[in-house]
Amino acid sequence: MALKEHPAPTSAATDAPAPRRSDATRTAILDAARARFAADGYERATIRAIARDARIDPSMVMRYYGSKDGLFAAVLDVDLRLPDPAGLDPRDVGRVLVSHFLDLWEENGVLTAILRVGVTNQAGAERLQGIFKDQLTPVARRACPDPEQAPVRAALCASQLLGLALTRYVLRIGPAVALSRPEIVAWLGPTVQRYLTAPHP
Amino acid sequence: MALKEHPAPTSAATDAPAPRRSDATRTAILDAARARFAADGYERATIRAIARDARIDPSMVMRYYGSKDGLFAAVLDVDLRLPDPAGLDPRDVGRVLVSHFLDLWEENGVLTAILRVGVTNQAGAERLQGIFKDQLTPVARRACPDPEQAPVRAALCASQLLGLALTRYVLRIGPAVALSRPEIVAWLGPTVQRYLTAPHP
DNA sequence: CTGGACTGTCAACACGTGTTGGCCTACGGT
DNA sequence: ACCGTAGGCCAACACGTGTTGACAGTCCAG
Description:
Two copies of one chain form a homodimer. By secondary structure, chain A is an all-alpha fold. Chain A is 67% helix and 0% strand. In chain A, α1 (23-44) packs antiparallel against α2, α6 packs across α7 and α8 (150-170) runs antiparallel to α10. In chain A, 40% of the residues are buried. Mean pLDDT of chain A is 89; it is low at 1-15. The interface between A and B is large, with 47 and 47 residues. Chain B binds a DNA duplex through α3.
């Protein structure tokens, strides 16, 4: 860790941290890293390959992100932007959630990267745990009958949603890839709905 | 590949392939490999570590399994031993399947190994695809209303079953680990049941 | 114009990996 | 009792990895 902190040369009080000339390179590295981690997982996504994709020297990665771990940590920031279940029809929450997750997974490779890495890398696994625990559990708490069951219900939803991502975006199992969005929502929506709102069986 | 084929020294016509003196070592390697692949994934499960666990020299692994790929291929043989849905109450097939899968995942680490490896290794992914396609689809064909939908329904089941394994045995998400077997069966059983038998939504 | 910081390149290091071949030991059929 | 051969260990190779430091161009404040 312990990245070099460049002192803001001009306005020190502004909120934006004074754009640097190397910002383009920084984001190029980050984009390449996200894609490589998503495609190859942690070990096989080498710094040399990432640097080649970003068309810079491997040592730049070290300069800007300190280490491979630091680079991956910089990729990890994810906000699921889950909707507040209080604001929608309780009968629709399952379908809305599934649809929202499909959006998230397809908008860029961050979630695929974290999933692929989390399976073999401890830090990635903890991050994935944290994301779903911190962001999905509150939704469950507002949607399920007994708030005390929120963690269990969130975990059940996670099992189905991550299972879909696994089969569709990571393992690329044929029929799971071929399914259309509306079909997925129609099939998985009621499942998630039930995990959230059904009485404890 | 191309393992050395030791000529059977004694009975050449017997069905059993004439036990070798090194069989103990062979299975020790295989056991250690399965555990390591399950715990660490493909890249981080090094031949040296596997050999250390099996208390033999790394070169023995090469001699008996040709290469790391060959070793992993030897670990891959899995028979899910799925029950024939024709033989049970159509109302129970979901619960029976979920229960059966819990048995499979907990009996040894093979499935965890294949899942962990399949996420980053192409051969592992294809193997996982094959297992679920070849063994789960026939079950779906016998259980679902329109046999033509069997692949889709098998994939849906796989998404939920693999998702459970992912959250419970790989990522070890707290609430998913804490759930008891009967609870899991009660929650996921109806889901699998619906994926198999419900009319296309 | 000039000095210092920033951005980038190059070559190298130390290390762990999969893999190989040579050597010694000890079993077991003849 | 013998000796071929299977079983096992050791040392080494070639390679790719993350990481480091020295060096050169480039921008901008003073």
